[in-house]
Amino acid sequence: MAANYNDLPDNLPVPQDDGAAAHLQGTSLPSVSLQATNQTVVDLSSLKGTVVVYCYPRTGEPGKPLPPRWDDIPGARGCTPQSCAFRDRFANFPANTHIFGSSTQDTPYQKELADRLHLPYLLLSDDHLELTRALRLPTFDVEGMTLVKRLTMIIRKGVIVKVFYPVFPPNQNASDVLAWLKANPT
């Protein structure tokens, strides 16, 4: 049976804060060029305004199974619901806010997701792990893949000012980010 990526199964293990993202708040972003789903290259460190980057492990492929025991990995499941939540709340973000999703999947893989879900924002590929390594983002390995643990960064003037980690449930993350932005305007 094909997995339903739109819904979160009951009884998913809740990820615990392992401290792996504690160093990020206050960190300046390095200049790293990431391929976007619109065939442009984005350097997050050079963007003006508020930048929201939600990092997710990987999205499932329609008609293909998830990695074995995927739902048993705390925080792994929920990339599609998280992406859809940012899509559905996109119009509620302040006008000067750039929103990006990012994973270690390659751009063609991400483009399929962006098109299928009609995402109004870009997905960024860190398939060479440049940003992941430069920022020492928390990762885990499964089936020979290095994946970023789910987290969201808010960046202003090239500096990470807020980190949501761990993110759970993922479909609530966009609302949490919006609430933080409302309470902390530029």
From TrEMBL:
UniProt keyword Iron-sulfur, yes or no: no
GO molecular-function terms, A-Z: thioredoxin peroxidase activity
Cellular component annotations (GO), alphabetically ordered: cytoplasm
Domain Thioredoxin: 23-186
Key words, A-Z: Antioxidant, Disulfide bond, Oxidoreductase, Peroxidase, Redox-active center
Residue ranges that the Swiss-Prot or TrEMBL entry lists as coiled coil: none
InterPro entries in the record: Peroxiredoxin_BCP/PrxQ, Redoxin, Thioredoxin-like_sf, Thioredoxin_domain
Top-level taxon of the source organism: Eukaryota
Pfam families in the cross-refs: Redoxin
GO BP annotation list: cell redox homeostasis; cellular response to oxidative stress
Listed Gene3D superfamilies: Glutaredoxin
PANTHER family xrefs: BCPB PROTEIN, THIOREDOXIN-DEPENDENT PEROXIDE REDUCTASE
Protein family (similarity comment): Belongs to the peroxiredoxin family. Prx5 subfamily.
Name used for this protein in its record: Thioredoxin domain-containing protein
Organism: Bifiguratus adelaidae
